[in-house]
C-alpha cells in the first residue's frame, strides 16, 4: 500500500537525483523566514529547488553535475531524506474548465437532446466501470483460491508425511521456498516494470482525487501489474490482503473506460471524446474507487462514503447517485459470477471478496453495560494502531534511504516471505493447542503431534488465506482457541504485518489489520468470560468484531465509511452504534500520537496534498506572503519565439501563464486579460496556429476543441516540436484559446480564504492581482500545501526539486 521503497517513487524520480535533497535541507525557508532574510522580502538561493511561478536563470544542471562528481556510483548507499520537503515534481490536475471561446461555442451548440445523450453516456460508463471492476475482483478471487489451495495441500501432505518419518525441517524448507519463489515473481514485476503498482494504491488514489497528478497511476500497465502482483503476494503467504488493491484497480478501469481509448495500446475507439479532460476523468475515477470498495467488501454504500470521505474534492447529488449505481453494479456482478462459479447460480450469497458471515442478533446482542468495554477496546485499538504506524514510519525511512535499488527490494520481499513461513511453522510446531475435528469447518486440518481425530488450532490461522482466518475468528464457537495461541499469534502477526507493509509488492493492509484486531478482540472476549464466570453476553465472536474494527480504525483512521463497510459486511445494523463508538475512539486516541497510515505515507513522499481546511492558525498570512513571484506573463498577441523560449526554459517548468494586454514597446505590464495553459500552447505550436504579422487577422487553420482533447492526457514535450527561425518571428494570437475569466484574489486575501477557494473549486492556478487588476503573483497548490500545523504551531516546508 505504501509505495515508498523503490527505484522510481510516485513522482517518477530517479534515485540519482535524490542527492538534491541535501541542498533542500539546508536552504532557508522560502518565505524569507530563514537565516539572513530581511523583513518580508523573499530570499532565493541558487539551490537545487525553485519556486513555481518564478522565471529564474538558475542553472540546475550545474548543481546536478557537481553532485554527480561527488558520487561516482550510479546508486548511492544512502539517500538522505527529509520529510519537511515538498516535491516540485508533482503537477496538479485541472478540475476547473478553461472557458475559452472554443469551449463556450461548443457548449452553446449542445441542445437539450445532445445534453441528454451526454448524460446517458455517463450512466453507461458507470455501469461498465461496475461490471469490469466486479469481473477483475472475481478473477483475483478465483485464481488466489485455486493457487493458495494447491500450495496448502502440497505443504500439508508434506508435513503429514514427515511427521511420521521424522525430518520436518524438509517441510519448513519447502514452505519457505514456495513462499519466497512466488513472492519473488510478484516483487520483480512491480520493482522492474511498474513501481507505482506497489502497495494498495489507496494513498495514490487519494492524491489523484485530491488533484495531484501521480505519474502512471491510472495506466493500463499499472492495472495488469497490480492484479498479477496482488495474486502472487497473497498466494506467497505474506501478511497482506487483496481488498485494498481493488480500489486502485477500480480507479484505473474507470480512468481507461471514460476516455474511450487506450494510450498504452495506442487504440482510439472514437467514443466518449467529450469526457477527455481532468474534470470528467476525476469524477469517473471516484466512481471506480467506490466500485472497488464495493467489490472488495460487498458494501456499495460504504464505497460511496469512502470516495466522499477519503477522496473527492468536489461533490454533488448527481455524482453521488452515479457512484452509488457503479458500486451496486460492481457488487452484483461479483455476486453473480461467484455464485455461478460455486455451483449455486440462483443463490446470490457472495456480495464481496470478503464476507464476514452473518452475525445473529438474538445470540449476539449487546447490553448497555458493554458500551464502556467497547470504548476501552477503541482506546486499545488506537494505541496499537499508533504503535503500528510509528514502527512502519521508521521502517519506511530506512527503506527510502537504503533499500532503493530494485534488486534489494526483491531480496527484501523474498526474505519477508521466507521469515513469514518460518515463523508460522515454528509457532505451529511449538503449539500444543489441539481441538476436535468433529463439527469444525477447517479447510486444511493439520494433525501434527495431536491425537487422532484432532487438529492443531494454531495451524488454522497460518494455513489459510487471511480472509478465511478473519471469518474463523469471528464465527468459530467458544473454546475453539486457546488464549495462549491467540496471544502469540497477535504478537507475531502484528510485527509481520508491520514489516510487510511497504514492501515492493501489490498488497493491502485492510485484512491484516482486521486479523490482528480479531485475534486480540477474541482473546479479550475469552478473558471477559473467565472473569464473568461464563456469562452469556461475553461471546468471543462479538469482541473479535469490535477488536477488528478498533485495530483497522487505529491504523487507517477512517470513520464514516469504515462504520458502514463493517455494518454491510456483517449484514447487521445492530452493531452500528458500538462499531461507530469504537472507530471514533480509536481515531481520537491514534491521532493524539501519530497520523493515519495513508496520510503518513503521502507526507513521506513529499506530495503537495491539500486537506479539507487550511491550518487553523494561518489567518495572519495573506495572499501577498503566500504567492509565487515574479510571474511569467504572455501578451495577448505574442511572438512565437518568446512562447517557445518560455516553454523550453527547464529552470521554470510552469504550467499556467497569465495573459496581459500590453504595448510591445513598453515594459509596463497592463491589466490581466486571461490565463493560458502550457498544454494549450503546445497544441497551438504543434498545429502552427500563427500569422506572419500582428495586424493580419487571418488564422491559417481554425482549431477545434477536438484537437486539444486528442492530445490529452499525454501532451508532447516542447522539445519534440520543431519551430524554424522564420516561424519564431511570427505572431500568435491567444485571445481565442485563453480562459478570459480566470479566478483571481486581491493581495490582502487571507490564507484560509484563498485555501477555501482553491480547494473547493479544484483550481490549479489562482492569479493574485492588485487594485488596478495587474498581475502581482500566482498561487499554486505547492504554495498552499507548504503550510501545515506542526507540534510547535504553523510550519513552512521547503520546496525541493526531487
TrEMBL record:
Superkingdom per UniProt: Eukaryota
Annotated segments matching region Disordered: 1-43
Residue intervals of the CBS domain: 738-796
Keyword Nucleotide-binding: yes
Binding residue positions for ATP: 92, 628, 632, 654-656, 764-765, 783
Main location: membrane
Membrane topology: Multi-pass membrane protein
Keywords: ATP-binding, CBS domain, Chloride, Ion transport, Membrane, Metal-binding, Nucleotide-binding, Repeat, Transmembrane, Transmembrane helix, Transport
GO cellular component: membrane
Location(s), subcellular: Membrane
Cross-referenced PROSITE patterns: CBS
GO MF term (any one): chloride:proton antiporter activity
Residues that bind Mg(2+): 91
Transmembrane region(s): 123-144, 172-193, 223-240, 284-306, 318-341, 371-391, 411-430, 484-503, 509-531, 543-567, 573-594
Family to which this protein belongs: Belongs to the chloride channel (TC 2.A.49) family.
Name under which the protein is recorded: Chloride channel protein
Organism the protein comes from: Gallus gallus (Chicken)
Amino acid at each position: 500500500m505504501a509505495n515508498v521503497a523503490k527505484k522510481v517513487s510516485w513522482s517518477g524520480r530517479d534515485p540519482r537525483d535524490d542527492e538534491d535533497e541535501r541542498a533542500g535541507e539546508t536552504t532557508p525557508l522560502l518565505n524569507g523566514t530563514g537565516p539572513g532574510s530581511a523583513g518580508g522580502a523573499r530570499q532565493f538561493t541558487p539551490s537545487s529547488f525553485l519556486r513555481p511561478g518564478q522565471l529564474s536563470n538558475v542553472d540546475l544542471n550545474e548543481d546536478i553535475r557537481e553532485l554527480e562528481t561527488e558520487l561516482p556510483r550510479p546508486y548511492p548507499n544512502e539517500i538522505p531524506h527529509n520529510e519537511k520537503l515538498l516535491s516540485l515534481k508533482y503537477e496538479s490536475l485541472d478540475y476547473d474548465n478553461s472557458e475559452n471561446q472554443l469551449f463556450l461555442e461548443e457548449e452553446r451548440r449542445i441542445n437539450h437532446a445532445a445534453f441528454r445523450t451526454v448524460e446517458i453516456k455517463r450512466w453507461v460508463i458507470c455501469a461498465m466501470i461496475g461490471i469490469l471492476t466486479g469481473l477483475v475482483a472475481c478473477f483475483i478471487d478465483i485464481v488466489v483460491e485455486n493457487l493458495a489451495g494447491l500450495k496448502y495441500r502440497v505443504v500439508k501432505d508434506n508435513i503429514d508425511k514427515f511427521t511420521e518419518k521424522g525430518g520436518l525441517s524438509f517441510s519448513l524448507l519447502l514452505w519457505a521456498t514456495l513462499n519466497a519463489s512466488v513472492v519473488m515473481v510478484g516483487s520483480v514485476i512491480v520493482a522492474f516494470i511498474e513501481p507505482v503498482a506497489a502497495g494498495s494504491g489507496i494513498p495514490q488514489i487519494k492524491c489523484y482525487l485530491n488533484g495531484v497528478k501521480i505519474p502512471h497511476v491510472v495506466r493500463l500497465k499499472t492495472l495488469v501489474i497490480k492484479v498479477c502482483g496482488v495474486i502472487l503476494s497473497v498466494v506467497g503467504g505474506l501478511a497482506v490482503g487483496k481488498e485494498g488493491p481493488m480500489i486502485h484497480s477500480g480507479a484505473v478501469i474507470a480512468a481507461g473506460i471514460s476516455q474511450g481509448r487506450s494510450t498504452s495500446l495506442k487504440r482510439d475507439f472514437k467514443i466518449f471524446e467529450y469526457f477527455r479532460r481532468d474534470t470528467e476523468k476525476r469524477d469517473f475515477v471516484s466512481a471506480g474507487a467506490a466500485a472497488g470498495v464495493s467489490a472488495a467488501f460487498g458494501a456499495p454504500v460504504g464505497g460511496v462514503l469512502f470516495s466522499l470521505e477519503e477522496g473527492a474534492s468536489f461533490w454533488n447529488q448527481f455524482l453521488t447517485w452515479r457512484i452509488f449505481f457503479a458500486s451496486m453494479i460492481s457488487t452484483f456482478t461479483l455476486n453473480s459470477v461467484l455464485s455461478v462459479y460455486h455451483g449455486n447460480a440462483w443463490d446470490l450469497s457472495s456480495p464481496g471478496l470478503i464476507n464476514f458471515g452473518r452475525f445473529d442478533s438474538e445470540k449476539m446482542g449487546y447490553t448497555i453495560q458493554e458500551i464502556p468495554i467497547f470504548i476501552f477496546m477503541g482506546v486499545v485499538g488506537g494505541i496499537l494502531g499508533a504503535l503500528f504506524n510509528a514502527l512502519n514510519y521508521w521502517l519506511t525511512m530506512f527503506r527510502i534511504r537504503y533499500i532503493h535499488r530494485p534488486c534489494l527490494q526483491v531480496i527484501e520481499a523474498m526474505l519477508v516471505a521466507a521469515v513469514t513461513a518460518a515463523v508460522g511453522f515454528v509457532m505451529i510446531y511449538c503449539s500444543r493447542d489441539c481441538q476436535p475435528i468433529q463439527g469444525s469447518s477447517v479447510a486444511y486440518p493439520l494433525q501434527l503431534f495431536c491425537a487422532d481425530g484432532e487438529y492443531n488450532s494454531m495451524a488454522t490461522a497460518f494455513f489459510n488465506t487471511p480472509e478465511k482466518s478473519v471469518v474463523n475468528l469471528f464465527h468459530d464457537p467458544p473454546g475453539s482457541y486457546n488464549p495462549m495461541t491467540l496471544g502469540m499469534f497477535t504478537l507475531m502477526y502484528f510485527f509481520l504485518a508491520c514489516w510487510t507493509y511497504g514492501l515492493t509488492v501489490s498488497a493491502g493492509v485492510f485484512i491484516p489489520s482486521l486479523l490482528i484486531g480479531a485475534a486480540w478482540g477474541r482473546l479479550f472476549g475469552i478473558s471477559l468470560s473467565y472473569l464473568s464466570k461464563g456469562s452469556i453476553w461475553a461471546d468471543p465472536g462479538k469482541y473479535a468484531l469490535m477488536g477488528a474494527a478498533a485495530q483497522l480504525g487505529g491504523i487507517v483512521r477512517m470513520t464514516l465509511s469504515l462504520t458502514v463497510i463493517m455494518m454491510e459486511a456483517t449484514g447487521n445494523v445492530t452493531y452500528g452504534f458500538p462499531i461507530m463508538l469504537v472507530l471514533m475512539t480509536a481515531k481520537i486516541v491514534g491521532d493524539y500520537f501519530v497520523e493515519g497510515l495513508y496520510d503518513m505515507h503521502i507526507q513521506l513522499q513529499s506530495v503537495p496534498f491539500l486537506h479539507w481546511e487550511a491550518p487553523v492558525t494561518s489567518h495572519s498570512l495573506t495572499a501577498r506572503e503566500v504567492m509565487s513571484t515574479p510571474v511569467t506573463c504572455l501578451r495577448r498577441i505574442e511572438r512565437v519565439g518568446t512562447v517557445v523560449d518560455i516553454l523550453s526554459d527547464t529552470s521554470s517548468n510552469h504550467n499556467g501563464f497569465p495573459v496581459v494586454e500590453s504595448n510591445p514597446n513598453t515594459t509596463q505590464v497592463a491589466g490581466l486579460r486571461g490565463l493560458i495553459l502550457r498544454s494549450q500552447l503546445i497544441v497551438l505550436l504543434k498545429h502552427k496556429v500563427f500569422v506572419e504579422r500582428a495586424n493580419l487577422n487571418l488564422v491559417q487553420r481554425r482549431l477545434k476543441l477536438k484537437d486539444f482533447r486528442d492530445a490529452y492526457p499525454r501532451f508532447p514535450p516542447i522539445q519534440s516540436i520543431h519551430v524554424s527561425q522564420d516561424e519564431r518571428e511570427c505572431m500568435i494570437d491567444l485571445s481565442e484559446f485563453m480562459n478570459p475569466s480566470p479566478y483571481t484574489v486581491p493581495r490582502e486575501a487571507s490564507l484560509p480564504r484563498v485555501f477555501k477557494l482553491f480547494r473547493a473549486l479544484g483550481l490549479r492556478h489562482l492569479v493574485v492581482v492588485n487594485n488596478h487588476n495587474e498581475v502581482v503573483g500566482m498561487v499554486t497548490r505547492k504554495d498552499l500545501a507548504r503550510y501545515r500545523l506542526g507540534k510547535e504551531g504553523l510550519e513552512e516546508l521547503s520546496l525541493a526539486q526531487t
